[in-house]
Design goal:
alpha/beta; eight-stranded parallel β-barrel; two-stranded antiparallel sheet
């Protein structure tokens, strides 16, 4: 089966239904390994690559900031295949570790540095990595309290900041340095601030939202799914295997495989819990009952969601990458989707 393609919002850009993630390149993966992954992905029809100025993140370090973009830039220069890929990157924000708020000036300055590292004159999708006001992502939903969004992160300030960013993005589009704008780690309210201001002022529309989504993390299923449907602003799902939990490689209480994400971060940023282990074991058993690898079931489910633009896959070796790529050939039938729903109801919010 050929790789499915899907529209990136209303941009006129089509992307592969699977997107090659890169956040391990430069820490867990060498430049040569990164290049091999890009080559294999292109062979299989995946032409969408996602990165960020803060990558790699396994682990994140000030010393490695930007290294992933440099590796991609090396591949672009060596291969001469810039025209064969849809390239996405992100401007960092204050959401994960202390950094400056995202402003129009920061968008421009960060993009210029990314273009230099990537050795290209434009990126196809430029994303805001974090909302300035904070978010409920990365397990922060357990204590999330938006009533604290006052003062510099009040509604009036947020709208002024959104206008500043969108006006800068409009200039960057005119200059040919970006083609489309996206968000990441956002809420439904946050997305709508961008959508409404863009509509009112004739500024670039948000094309996509990159949030975490998997069988174990389904926060996108309600309000954001409604926004995606009505505003044509689909999901780019990161961590669709829950940082490897859904591949079943941490099953049976065994020590984490050498070089794996869990060998570097035991809880996988809160993803590895007794509840997520029980849920992932149930999904793994279902996958094997249907002759699939657990990772294939997890990715095929994500691909089946009506709001999905592209599912971001990541791998530290080629065998993992091949399994992930093969998920695009799987279409889950109604009976299997019903069995997934039954497990979801039994394990509704495991992490």
């Amino acid at each position: 089966m050929s790789m499915p393609r899907r529209p990136l919002g209303r941009t006129g850009i089509d992307v592969s239904a699977l997107c090659l993630g890169s956040m391990t390149w430069g820490s867990q993966n060498t430049g040569d390994e990164a290049a091999s992954q890009i080559d294999r992905a292109l062979e299989r029809g995946v032409d969408f690559i996602d990165t960020a100025e803060m990558y790699p993140t396994t682990p994140r370090s000030p010393e490695t900031h930007g290294d992933t973009e440099r590796l991609i830039g090396d591949w672009l220069k060596r291969s001469g295949r810039r025209g064969d890929i849809v390239l996405a990157t992100k401007v960092n924000g204050n959401g994960h570790e202390p950094d400056d708020d995202i402003t129009g000036a920061k968008v421009r300055a960060s993009l210029e540095r990314s273009l230099e590292r990537l050795q290209t004159d434009h990126v196809d999708l430029y994303q805001l990595h974090w909302p300035n006001r904070g978010s409920y992502h990365f397990r922060q939903q357990w204590t999330y309290d938006p009533s604290g969004q006052t003062g510099p992160y009040s509604q009036e300030h947020v709208r002024g900041n959104v206008l500043d960013v969108l006006e800068t993005c409009e200039k960057l589009v005119t200059e040919g340095k970006i083609r489309a704008v996206g968000l990441s780690n956002e809420s439904a309210w946050g997305v709508m601030q961008f959508v409404e201001l863009a509509r009112a002022r004739g500024l670039p529309r948000v094309a996509s939202v990159q949030n975490e989504y998997s069988l174990l993390c389904r926060l996108f299923d309600t309000d954001l799914a409604e926004v995606a449907h009505h505003e044509n602003c689909g999901l780019l799902a990161f961590s669709p295997l829950a940082a490897g939990v859904l591949s079943d490689k941490y099953a049976d209480g065994k020590a984490p495989p050498k070089g794996s994400r869990r060998a570097l971060n035991d809880t996988l940023s809160g993803r590895w819990t007794a509840k997520s282990r029980a849920a992932s074991e149930a999904y793994a058993a279902l996958a094997r009952a249907h002759g699939m690898e657990p990772a294939q079931l997890a990715l095929a489910f994500c691909l089946s969601r009506p709001f999905m633009t592209s599912v971001i896959i990541g791998a530290t070796d080629m065998a993992q990458l091949d399994v992930n790529l093969s998920a695009a050939d799987i279409v889950l039938d109604e009976a299997t989707l019903g069995e997934i729903d039954a497990i979801h109801r039994a394990h509704p919010m495991p992490m």
